[in-house]
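Today's session is about reading a structure prediction critically. Students often jump straight to the picture, but the first step is always the sequence itself: look for stretches that repeat, for charged clusters, for runs of hydrophobic residues. Only then move on to the predicted structure, which in these notes is written as discrete structure tokens rather than atom positions. Here is the chain we will use throughout the hour.
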Amino acid sequence: MALLNYAAKERFCRKDLILALGGGVVGDLAGFVAATFLRGMRFVQVPTTLLAMVDSSVGGKTSINLDMGKNLAGAFFQPDAVICDVDALVTLPKEIFVDGLAEVIKYGAIGDAELLDLLGGKGNMDLEMVIARCIRMKAEIVSQDERDLDVRQLLNFGHTVGHGIEAVSDYTISHGHAVAIGMSIFARAAEKSDLCVSEVCREIVDIIKINGLPVNCAFSADELYSAALSDKKNVGGSIVVVLPEKRGLCGLHKVT
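Below is the predicted structure for this chain, in token form.
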């Protein structure tokens, strides 16, 4: 509300432009203001973290958190442009950079086995190429399903539990670290449910570890289940979860 009131006080108009310079939170908030003030004004994403470059700046999701959960108020609103300067990443603390690797691992798991090879240390990890590869995949998926009703839900791999982990930790666990744990939990669940061969699921968990991310948390299943009930993807008592099926391929599974 403070930013919306500021925009009103300064008499922003629809032809003005909001520049979102920063990480995912900055981009989500700036996009939400742009989407809602005067029912929409122009904005440009200039992400400065790896996580924002490969994920949150692309696809048009804008949002803010509510007391009951993450990203519960928002709008689908596409930016006029997304500008990624890879040199900005050298300014990041290691932990923040590693946080973004969780989303890169996600892309490998849901649809890019070659990316899994790079993340596992097989080949030269050209960062600019990796970022471009992730953006292309997300853009292709979003072009098929902008409103997150079908194939776009693949991009939620690890996020349902991940958002629960963030909430239960009172956001002391960062998004990327929480998503990494969420992906690990669902990979192990897919293996135990015989939905996927064990080698595929174990590789996902191993790659998460190799890249310095966690695969477990201290919270109980009951705590995470309770938090997941507030997830925006929960519809009529059921939710679609993303589970590994083959190497570099995930599928959507509706569960109660």
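Discussion point for the tutorial: The longest helix spans residues 94-111.
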